[in-house]
Amino acid sequence: MSLTLIICEKNIAARRIAYILSDGNYKRGRIAGIPYYSFNNHIVIGLKGHIMKLDYPEEYSKWNDIAPKNLIDVKPVKKILSPSIARALKEIAKDVKKVIIATDYDREGELIGVEVLELLPKNVEIKRARFSAITPYEIKKAFENLGSVDYNLSKSAEARQYIDLIWGASLTRFISISSNQLGKDFLSVGRVQTPTLALIVEKEKEIKNFIPKPYWIIKLSMQKNGIIFEIKSDKIEDEKEAKKIYEKIKKEGYAIVKKFQKKTIKERPPYPFDTTTFLKDASYLGFSASNAMKMAEELYMNGCISYPRTDNTVYPPLPFDSILKKLEKIMPSDIEEVRKMRRSKPVRGKKIAHDHPPIHPVDACKVDEDHRKIYELIVRRFLATISKDAVIEEKNVEMAVKNHLFKGKGTIIVEKNWRKIYPYYKMKESNIPDMEENEKVKIVTSKLKKDETKPPKRYTQGSLIVEMEKLGLGTKSTRHEIIGKLYRRNYIRGKRISPSPAGVAVTEALKKGAEIITKPDMTAALEKEMGEIAEGKKTFEEVVEESKKILRDAFKILEGRKEIIAKEIKEALNKQNYFGKCPNCGGNLIMRKSKYGKRFIGCSNYPDCKTTYPLPQKGAVFFEGEYCECGAPIITVIYKGKKWKKCVANCN
What we know:
Blueprint: E1 3-8, H1 11-21, E2 27-31, E3 34-39, E4 42-46, E5 52-55, E6 77-80, H2 83-93, E7 96-101, H3 107-117, E8 125-128, H4 136-144, H5 151-178, H6 193-209, E9 214-224, E10 227-232, H7 239-249, E11 254-267, H8 275-284, H9 289-301, H10 320-327, H11 332-340, H12 369-385, E12 390-401, E13 404-415, H13 418-421, E14 440-452, H14 461-471, H15 479-488, E15 492-493, E16 498-499, H16 501-514, H17 520-534, H18 540-560, H19 562-576, E17 578-581, E18 588-593, E19 599-603, E20 612-614, E21 620-627, E22 633-639, E23 642-647
Parallel strand pairs: 1-4, 1-7, 7-8
Antiparallel strand pairs: 2-3, 3-4, 5-6, 9-10, 9-14, 11-12, 11-14, 12-13, 15-16, 17-18, 18-19, 19-20, 21-22, 22-23
Helix pairs in contact: 3-5, 5-17, 5-18, 6-16, 8-14, 9-12, 16-19, 17-18
């Protein structure tokens, strides 16, 4: 019997594709415990992502047996991640004459497909199905127009794997061995991870080094035609000057209009979602980047939205009317509203890519609460992009009191249009009346207010992803994973991201040791070269060798500063593991680990003092200097994006 084998990235996609291609007439089965779906001499099987992992040979697994820099020249090997899937594929392959790769159409998806081919006979026919949504129309169209595997694209993904392995393994071992942080407590370093962490550390330094400058503003409350509005002076940096002006004008009853301007502005809707803008807006709703992407991937696999990993912000020709008709089933009033205010052409962003369209809904779906929020965000963004501009009325006035100028501004939404359907971007409205030049307007109250300049804001996950994209750090597929890794390694904390002492120490040590590792320039250049592999402009070997050269040069500097790096990291870790003073003997309370790997707080004067406190075993925990009334320290816990404080003695 001649079989056609269809390879999908996950089981959920395999089941849905089998359902679509067979019109629901497929049979379920299992081989080596792995589910598959069969119909008309076709077998559809889902993987669990990559089935092979690039790693060093087993003899290099003991960290102290090889100098970290020597790992640069050790050739990695491919190891099978899922033996059961490999067995299932080999069993099925005995009768297979044709293989169709139907994994996600991007670098990683192409490499996942190519990995599978290494387990199959060499004489089979190989085809590629490319699609951006798992809908009947897209899937049937893709399978009617099969293409070839893009080996340049898979090689670019393999180059990233290779480069990230040698950078991550060699630098992680160097830092961890130098500071004696081994086992579960190792300190990770990465080609993209480290410059991303450096951005957060630099921002924190800016905030800590920021010196606020005081300034004064005079605010006047005005009234005309029953409308109360505010005008104010520019910032006045000299206190005496501010008080002098205030004393001069505070008893005045009127201000004279010097200039009044009214204009109507058309405000375009936000452009279609690419991955970066989607993750940014999802962060406004309280989703971490990793969780938002997970939700989006599940919605894609279930045929609700298009592929969520895209750099595109320009829609190709889409069946807009058909999508609106589908969405009408679940949000009829909103769709009716959109039809009334629909624009002639959707708005366009500046980024055009031809592999996948911007993220958009492809079907009406009823999902659970968390998925619903993400799904609704994507649906509403799509609807906004095909809705008319909002109409804003803006008024600006300049008024004089005793020859001192004051300014006021009013903003009113005249026609909400796209803002009706996309409520996530708030606008503060304020009204001021129409005025004429030289008109006198009544002053109701006046006040002199002191304020000061504010430090820069910390990154959120959304704003950090935007900055990473701007600097060329990582890709649309990896940025959220990098941020998640920084949280897991306890290098960063909080929704407004700040670095931990360990995060600062590792960054500063590498910066002093070999600054190039902490800068985005080198990483961005390598990303560009990996893109050139996909385009056929550079070879895998050229790009890998270039990255090795950079890494060798970095190690020459790092090894000369090994002792200084170790000292700085140890000091920072001691600070991070400090949890205050012992209420019983005054010793230092330190985070320790039991022989079973459980973390707890113990006194530095053990065994003379046996004071201990339990710690949560999941999430980041740290001490911010607060103590409970009982004398025990209060710790801050961050887990799954939530932050809370508790007494370690569990008395509150």
